[in-house]
Specification:
The structure holds two protein chains of two kinds.
Chain A: H1 15-25, H2 34-44, H3 50-76, E1 131-132, H4 134-142, E2 151-156, E3 161-163, E4 179-182, E5 189-192, E6 205-212, E7 215-223, E8 231-232, E9 246-255, E10 288-291, E11 315-317, E12 329-337, E13 349-350, E14 356-362
Parallel strand pairs in A: 1-2, 5-7, 7-9, 8-9, 11-14
Antiparallel strand pairs in A: 2-6, 3-4, 4-5, 6-7, 9-10, 9-12, 10-11, 12-14
Chain B: H1 3-10, H2 14-36, H3 39-55, H4 66-84, E1 106-107, H5 112-129, H6 133-144, H7 149-156, H8 160-182
The chains are: A alpha/beta, B mainly alpha.
Chain lengths: ~375, ~180
């Protein structure tokens, strides 16, 4: 398909076209429950007094100043290494502080790695159990020591979750969502399920959750290795994925190298598979993979039109998945298979079962 | 916006605030949707904007400036909503050219009028997604909501001259993004 010639003196879009596109983009109506959901949140929110914000601001400044002082003192007091200089010299001369990314541990690959448990061989190995005990999970989440966006896995039995309504609404669930409490008393935490996702088939067993502030969002059943660790990827096999379930895998996440990409053909695609919250996701050069090893297999595409091979045993995940870069990162990741486009949606992209995966996030162990 | 209603809400009257929400939610959602381009993100941004407004109503000194004040909150909420998004919306094109395509991606042709319309919308949306949230908000306020340069300036907290230059820059950025889509 030949792109239309462009005249540099002619705008690529007229005022009318621009207005029309923007009206189209904003032509949706909010879900019926949105105003009610906001009202419910307001009911439990308290307008923050100005004095409290001022104190919070001053506290933040004080903490930042303290950190600067401590770091500065540590830098000044750093012992001189044998045969070396105590103060690294940067481009601006002595006294400047050079900040570099640490490379933790040796790897067989020439690529630097930053990961929880780098292996000497560059081959991914399981880094221990990722399954939390319920009490430990509740305590850690209540203490605010888990990051929003982390994924956690725990085993639940009947009775662990107690449903409650009306909504406690201390989260940013876009619609009214089923909610439960896990734990009791002061340590109880809220678990909710997004209305934008299909309902999990169960609320017991080994389940995955997305950390959302100090709440947990229920994702669904998770497959792990038999010892509760993430399934280590191997070049020999790709873990089977089942609809509605998640798999914790251990491997190396990275974006593909900068090689010429296969040429696009035909009209632009208008349908995409969806990830979490019905967010459209794409699979396109430069690709993003979770691989069994840190080293990238030989990739060639000299003429820009050929194919790029999927690393053996690797999982092809959505472009620019959170935390991916051109530097391989070892870790435990929660993934689920991308199986099909939503019903009734024109889909120009047909995912292939077992080849395309939706990376949900880093699986954080206890 | 009804000044007495805003004044009551500013004093902590929840019913007054609920009335403001009910009266504005459709328009606010439409603006957010035009900026972020995705329903879930727009819902999230609208919720967070209203909650942030409720929490910080004390910072609104002049009830007559509610629209401008809330506009800034909404743009920030849109920015945060997109930042929170865990899976980036990115472009995709058909692949393969009759050869084995990476990962087994199978393109499907979109012939016919429906395909043309959809392709045009997708082209614009992909290009628009390349813009910063501030640029998107500028274009939406100006070309969708028909706000004056002065009104845009008060919503974004910038002088009129800056609005004009940034509008021009945003328009050029959009045109460049559209040209990239045509390559």
């Amino acid at each position: 398909m030949t792109p239309p010639p462009t005249d540099p003196t002619t705008p690529a879009i007229s005022e009318d076209e621009l207005a029309e596109h923007l009206r189209r983009r904003g032509s949706g109506t909010p879900p019926p429950g949105l105003a009610a959901a906001i009202a419910e949140r307001v009911a439990v929110e308290r307008a923050e007094p100005r004095w409290r914000r001022a104190i919070a601001w001053k506290s933040a400044v004080a903490v930042a100043a303290a950190v600067v002082i401590v770091v500065g003192a540590a830098f000044v007091a750093r012992p001189t290494p044998p045969g070396g200089s105590a103060s690294p010299s940067g481009p601006t001369g002595s006294g400047s502080v050079a900040v570099t990314s640490p490379s933790i541990g040796p790897t067989a690959s020439s690529e630097p790695s930053v990961g929880a448990s780098p292996s000497a061989s560059g081959v991914a190995v399981s880094s221990g159990t990722i399954v939390w005990g319920v009490d430990d999970l509740v305590a850690r989440l209540a203490a605010g020591s888990l990051r929003t966006g982390d994924v956690v896995v725990t085993d639940l039995v009947d009775g662990d979750l107690s449903p409650f309504w009306p909504v406690g609404v201390a989260h940013s669930c876009p619609q009214l969502c089923p909610m439960w409490k896990l734990g009791s008393g002061e340590a109880a935490i809220t678990i909710y399920q997004s209305m934008l996702e299909p309902a999990p088939t169960t609320t017991t067993g080994r389940l995955g959750f997305l950390v959302d502030d100090r709440s947990l969002r229920l994702l669904g059943p998770v497959t792990t290795s038999s010892d509760g660790g993430a399934v280590a990827l191997t070049p020999a096999a790709v873990p089977p994925g089942r609809p509605g379930t998640f798999t914790a895998v251990h491997g190396w996440l990275r974006d593909g190298p900068l090689v010429p990409c296969p040429a696009p053909i035909g009209p632009q695609a208008s349908g995409l598979p969806v990830g979490l919250d019905q967010q459209r996701i794409g699979f396109r050069c430069p690709w993003t993979w979770i691989q069994p090893t840190a080293a990238f297999p030989g990739v060639t595409n000299a003429d820009g039109s050929g194919s790029i091979g999927l690393p053996a045993g690797g999982l092809f995940v959505q472009n620019g998945a959170d935390g991916s870069s051109q530097t391989a990162r070892e870790g435990d990741f929660l993934v689920r298979p991308v199986l099909a486009c939503p019903p009734g949606v024109y889909c120009a992209f047909v995912p292939v079962e077992g080849r395309h995966w939706d990376l949900i996030g880093d699986a954080v162990g206890p | 916006m009804d000044r007495p209603l805003v004044e009551r809400a500013r004093q902590g009257d929840r019913e007054a605030f609920d009335a403001i929400v009910r009266g504005k939610v459709d328009a606010v959602y439409a603006t957010a949707l035009a900026i972020v381009g995705h329903e879930a993100d727009a819902q999230d941004a609208v919720q967070e904007a209203f909650i942030a407004a409720w929490r910080s109503f004390g910072t609104l000194r002049d009830p007559d400036r509610f629209e401008a004040w809330f506009g800034r909150i909404l743009v920030n909420a849109c920015r945060m909503s997109l930042r929170r998004r865990r899976v980036r919306q990115i472009e995709v094109v058909g692949l393969g050219g009759g050869r084995t395509s990476p990962g087994g991606v199978e393109p499907v042709a979109s012939d016919g009028p429906l395909g043309d319309v959809t392709a045009s919308a997708d082209r614009f949306d992909r290009a628009f997604a390349r813009l910063s949230v501030d640029d998107r908000a500028l274009l939406v306020f100006r070309h969708r909501d028909d706000l004056s340069v002065t009104d845009i300036g008060t919503r974004l907290g910038i002088p009129d001259g800056t609005v004009k230059s940034r509008l021009f820059a945003a328009r050029r950025a959009l045109e460049r993004a559209l040209e990239r889509e045509d390559r």
